[in-house]
User: Fold Ferredoxin-type protein NapF from Candidatus Methanophagaceae archaeon ANME-1 ERB6.
Amino acid sequence: MIKIDRYRCGCCGACVTVCPTEAIDMIGMWIEINEDKCNRCKACVNICPVGALEQEQ
Ligand code: SF4
Ligand code: SF4
Assistant:
């Protein structure tokens, strides 16, 4: 699963845009990842400019 560091996330929306399965939703200043939709491609981890996303086993 993808772990979100909410203290680092600046809600830039880059991960939402890059996600190929539309697994990330932004609700106000809060992102949520739908684990059922996530295919673990790590595109969001790689694009996040502040390193707020991390893949966990
Ligand atoms: S790992 Fe890939 S599929 Fe999962 S939330 Fe990130 S960009 Fe979307
Ligand atoms: S790319 Fe990083 S900083 Fe931007 S919304 Fe996603 S987790 Fe937050």
